[in-house]
Amino acid sequence: MIERLSSERPADWDSLPDIELYRDQVLGYMKRQHSLQPEDAQLTGAMINNYIKSGLLPRASGKKYTKDHLVYLTAICSLKQVLSVGETDALLKLQPNIADAQGFYEEYLVTMEEAFRETAASLEEDNSREQLAATALQLAISSYAHKLACEKLLELLKEKKPPAKAKQSKKDGLIE
User: Fold this and answer.
1) Of 12, 125, 134, 141, which sits 20 to 30 A from 172 (CA to CA)?
2) CA 49 from centroid of its chain's CA atoms
């Protein structure tokens, strides 16, 4: 687990496919992007439809998905593990560079790298069953605390209505 947390990451911007993909190809690609997630947490076609209907994800161009779609789906698939679709939508819309898929994605990957390295480091000192159990409890409680703090920050940010940097209709997804 330490090795996987230390090394397995979604592809960087330059490694994302430059060609448009069909939905089945996107689903297969997302499995590789999120190799640490269990099979039952993987992205499905129905989920993509729901994200598009809710305005979280832009509609596909015809039946094909672009590099930008892969960026947003990579973030959504991670965030949905701890946030609701509505909270994920709110959080992504609050990101100052969300309209710039490459800039957003690069910052997202840096944040993920830091979090995964920190988690892997917390596991490296543990070797006994008791230490592993204590670390598991600490990680679960820490996750809960982080989730509560994130939800409160989102609530505060909704109240303050920060100025939007980009305007785009809801039907196009992500940016308002």
Assistant:
1) 12
2) 17
Q: Which residues of 87-123 are buried (b: 16+ CB within 10 A; e: fewer)?
A: bbbbbbbebeebbbbeebbeebbeeeeeebeebbeeb
Q: Inter-axis angle of helices 129-160 and 85-93, to 10 degrees?
A: 60
Q: How far apart are CA 125 and CA 131, in angstroms?
A: 9
Q: Which of 32, 40, 38, 35 is nearest to 4 (CA)?
A: 35
Taking each helix axis as running N to C, give the angle between helix 101-124 and helix 67-79, from 0 to 180 degrees, rounded to the nearest 10: 40
Contacts of 2 (CB under 8 A, 6+ apart): 120, 123, 124
Hey, what amino acid is at 33?
Q
Q: Which amino acid is at 99?
A: A
CA proximity to 73, closest of 10, 5, 166, 153: 10
Q: Tell me how far apart the alpha carbons of residues 15 and 13 are, in angstroms, rounded to a whole number.
A: 5
pTM of the model as a whole: 0.82
Q: Does residue 25 have a pLDDT over 90? A: yes
Distance CA 126, CA 29 (A): 33
